[in-house]
């Protein structure tokens, strides 16, 4: 009888299209509520089916007083059914999901109806759907037979729950996203579903693909906020949240970060710093014991790797200019001795600083790997490059290696990095299939501005005693990539000079480097000159390099990469007794390249690293340099040079000579300045005082002359000449009333 009565009600409902449907619906919903309250599963299912039919009817006029609270609660309860009979339990759960879907459809688009997005409703609907998704995943993991699987798929609540969740999220407006996502996070917390992360990832994959793309960043913000809220949870939980973040960022692509770009990275970097503290102290609170330190350290390391991977995922979704901003932001967080970040004292402080530096540089490397920028000036702004290179001179070998890898990833714009992963002296460069483009104007400007700075740091890194094979491989890659990506003739000349200077470091060994380091530097030079000679395609240059390599193969194979950069390097302790024929000679290289149009004067000048680069890093000149500039200005204006030389006639030849000689003049000027700076740094105080005193006296006499001329009174209005300077003036104008020329006023 109940079934017949409900069928009659359903048919009346379907036939009723007039405005009076509201009057009828109240009675109808009471009947459905009675059925849902019944303990008999069949009647609950019958009531649900009737409600679904009603939900699919589009009403012309809304009902202001109709409430769906009971239905949301009851359908959510049915979704969690724990009936003993599996088939009946599945049917009740499916009915519950269908009922919730009906409630959503009926209310979601009508603002005058009950607001389904209120937390009180969302806190019931979303967990009910997630429970069914989760439960079915567990039951399906028992691997049923194909027939059972087909049957289950037809009847399983999983697809229905997923479809309902997608529909719900797809209809969510900007202001409702938060209320829809919060119950998901709470459900994952309550059921400890972050740790395996499979289900959590699955949930957020559904969410990210279902919501409107412009709302993606709201989900990311919710996840970041949740990560902050769980900052004292177990590392595995935090790692789960971070990995879900990474997945979500990849799906959302450019919409993942939203308007607050740096806030996303700031949150992730803050979590990284907290994790380092936890790993060092061995507890989330200072009061806790140290017994679980080993486990936590291992877990924290996993979490740190997850954060670094996520930073890379987020950065890869950004446009180039924002990636550049993010890298500057990360680099500014790295604690360096020259920066405003306080370097902590003591052993614990040192460990914290070192770990922070390594983790932040790892993050930077992760971002730089996906960074593609054709303009090196944009990719490496001066402030960023200065900070990065100052980290390259730190004692920690691991930090130096990270800096080299970061620089390589910036310079390598054509994917040539892997071709230089092993250091060898190959006879034919064509087998590497290098991608080479002509050096652009921007690259030339970049090398003019920062070339000497890069060379100096490469030179100083080569001299580090703690270098291992990975460092030499990175240095080799960097030298080769600069030669391919950023080199014009001038840069090639400078790189050859630099490598010959490195050979000299190994040969003279003023720094008392171990045998391995010396052999590695010899081998590095051989491998680089072998490839650069083939790139320059100057036959005589190739011949000289080839002859030296052949001589080394016969007389000193331990100076070649094939013997040095292997698992068990074959070294020699008699490196000070080597003959001249196994070295590359600057005079010979200068001669053969000079004949092919290269600047032989510059080539024959030994490379000496500039002393003022470190001062330039701190954006101020040293006292010695300031004095040298002062002396230079004075010497140029001294009386000895007052007599001017006759004006030289400017012709095409003189202009050409000026351009050609400019490099040599620069070198001489730099050397002269270096000598002046050295004099002021090392000379006795009395000598400097006497020198400056003589100059000061000269300057004072000049000033006196100027003041004498200036203070003379102007001619009188009557036209008569006033008394000569030095005689008493009765009617002279007071000094404060005089009109001084602008140049004399200070």
From TrEMBL:
<dbReference type="GO" id="GO:0005886">
    <property type="term" value="C:plasma membrane"/>
</dbReference>
<dbReference type="InterPro" id="IPR016024">
    <property type="entry name" value="ARM-type_fold"/>
</dbReference>
<protein>
    <recommendedName>
        <fullName>Protein EFR3 homolog B</fullName>
    </recommendedName>
</protein>
<keyword id="KW-0963">Cytoplasm</keyword>
<feature type="region of interest" description="Disordered">
    <location>
        <begin position="138"/>
        <end position="158"/>
    </location>
</feature>
<dbReference type="GO" id="GO:0005829">
    <property type="term" value="C:cytosol"/>
</dbReference>
<keyword id="KW-1003">Cell membrane</keyword>
<keyword id="KW-0449">Lipoprotein</keyword>
<comment type="subunit">
    <text>Component of a phosphatidylinositol 4-kinase (PI4K) complex, composed of PI4KA, EFR3 (EFR3A or EFR3B), TTC7 (TTC7A or TTC7B) and HYCC (HYCC1 or HYCC2).</text>
</comment>
<comment type="similarity">
    <text>Belongs to the EFR3 family.</text>
</comment>
<keyword id="KW-0564">Palmitate</keyword>
<dbReference type="GO" id="GO:0072659">
    <property type="term" value="P:protein localization to plasma membrane"/>
</dbReference>
<dbReference type="InterPro" id="IPR011989">
    <property type="entry name" value="ARM-like"/>
</dbReference>
<keyword id="KW-0472">Membrane</keyword>
<dbReference type="Pfam" id="PF21052">
    <property type="entry name" value="EFR3_ARM"/>
</dbReference>
<dbReference type="InterPro" id="IPR051851">
    <property type="entry name" value="EFR3_Homologs"/>
</dbReference>
<dbReference type="InterPro" id="IPR049152">
    <property type="entry name" value="EFR3-like_ARM"/>
</dbReference>
<keyword id="KW-0597">Phosphoprotein</keyword>
<comment type="function">
    <text>Component of a complex required to localize phosphatidylinositol 4-kinase (PI4K) to the plasma membrane. The complex acts as a regulator of phosphatidylinositol 4-phosphate (PtdIns(4)P) synthesis. In the complex, EFR3B probably acts as the membrane-anchoring component. Also involved in responsiveness to G-protein-coupled receptors; it is however unclear whether this role is direct or indirect.</text>
</comment>
């Amino acid at each position: 009888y109940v079934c017949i009565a409900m069928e009659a009600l359903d048919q009346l409902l379907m036939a009723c299209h007039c405005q009076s449907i509201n009057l009828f619906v109240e009675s109808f919903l009471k009947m459905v509520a009675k059925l849902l309250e019944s303990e008999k599963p069949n009647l609950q299912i019958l009531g649900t089916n009737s409600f679904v039919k009603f939900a699919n009817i589009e009403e012309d006029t809304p009902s202001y007083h109709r409430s769906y609270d009971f239905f949301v609660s009851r359908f959510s309860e049915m979704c969690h059914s724990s009936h003993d009979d599996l088939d009946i339990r599945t049917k009740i759960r499916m009915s519950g999901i269908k009922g919730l879907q009906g409630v959503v459809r009926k209310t979601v688009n009508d603002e005058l109806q009950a607001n389904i997005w209120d937390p009180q409703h969302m806190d019931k609907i979303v967990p009910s759907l997630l429970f069914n998704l989760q439960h079915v995943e567990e039951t399906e993991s028992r691997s049923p037979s194909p027939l059972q699987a087909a049957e289950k798929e037809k009847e399983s609540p999983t697809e229905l729950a997923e479809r309902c969740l997608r529909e719900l999220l797809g209809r969510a407006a900007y202001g409702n996203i938060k209320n829809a996502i919060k119950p998901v996070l709470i459900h994952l917390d309550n059921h400890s579903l972050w740790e395996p992360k499979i289900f959590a990832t699955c949930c957020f994959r559904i969410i990210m693909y279902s919501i409107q793309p412009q709302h993606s960043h709201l989900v990311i913000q919710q996840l970041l906020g949740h990560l902050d809220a769980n900052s004292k949870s177990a590392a595995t939980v935090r790692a789960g949240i971070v990995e879900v973040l990474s997945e979500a960022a990849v799906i959302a692509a450019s919409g993942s970060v939203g308007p607050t770009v740096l806030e996303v990275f700031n949150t992730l970097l803050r979590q990284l710093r907290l994790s380092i503290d936890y790993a060092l102290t061995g507890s989330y609170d200072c009061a806790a014991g140290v017994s679980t330190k080993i486990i936590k350290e291992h877990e924290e390391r996993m979490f740190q790797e997850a954060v670094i991977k996520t930073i890379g995922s987020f950065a890869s979704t950004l446009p180039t200019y924002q990636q550049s901003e993010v890298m500057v932001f990360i680099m500014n967080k790295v604690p360096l001795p020259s920066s405003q970040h306080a370097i902590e004292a003591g052993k614990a402080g040192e460990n914290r600083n070192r770990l922070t530096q390594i983790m932040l540089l790892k993050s930077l490397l992760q971002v730089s790997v996906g960074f593609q920028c054709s303009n090196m000036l944009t990719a490496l702004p001066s402030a960023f490059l200065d900070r990065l290179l100052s980290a390259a001179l730190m004692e920690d070998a691991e930090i130096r290696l990270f800096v080299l890898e970061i620089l390589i990833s910036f310079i390598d714009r054509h994917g040539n990095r892997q071709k230089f992963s092993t250091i060898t002296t190959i006879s034919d460069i064509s087998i590497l299939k290098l991608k080479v483009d002509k050096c652009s104007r921007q690259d030339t400007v970049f090398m003019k501005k920062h070339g000497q700075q890069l060379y100096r740091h490469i030179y100083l890194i080569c001299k580090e005693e703690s270098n291992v094979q990975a460092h030499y491989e990175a240095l080799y890659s960097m030298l080769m990539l600069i030669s391919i990506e950023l080199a014009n003739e001038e840069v090639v000349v400078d790189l050859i000079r630099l490598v010959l200077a490195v050979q000299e470091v190994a040969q003279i060994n003023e720094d008392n480097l171990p045998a391995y380091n010396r052999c590695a530097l010899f081998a590095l030079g051989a491998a680089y000159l072998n490839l650069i000679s083939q790139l320059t395609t100057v036959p005589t240059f190739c011949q000289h390099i080839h002859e030296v390599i052949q001589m080394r193969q016969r007389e000193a194979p331990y100076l070649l990469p094939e013997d040095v950069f292997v698992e068990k390097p074959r070294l020699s302790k008699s490196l000070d007794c080597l003959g001249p024929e196994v070295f590359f000679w600057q005079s010979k290289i200068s001669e053969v390249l000079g004949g092919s149009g290269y600047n032989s004067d510059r080539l024959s000048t030994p490379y000496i690293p500039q002393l003022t680069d470190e001062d330039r890093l701190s954006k101020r000149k040293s006292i010695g340099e300031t004095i040298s500039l002062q002396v230079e200005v004075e010497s140029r204006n001294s009386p000895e040079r007052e007599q001017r030389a006759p004006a030289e006639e400017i012709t095409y030849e003189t202009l050409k000579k000026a351009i050609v000689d400019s490099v040599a003049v620069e070198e001489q000027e730099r050397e002269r300045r270096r000598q002046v700076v050295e004099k002021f740094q090392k000379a006795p105080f009395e000598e400097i005082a006497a020198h400056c005193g003589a100059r000061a006296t000269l300057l004072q006499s000049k000033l006196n002359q100027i003041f004498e001329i200036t203070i003379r009174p102007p001619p009188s209005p009557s036209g008569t000449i006033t008394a000569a300077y030095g005689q008493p003036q009765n009617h002279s104008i007071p000094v404060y009333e005089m009109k001084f020329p602008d140049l004399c006023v200070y």
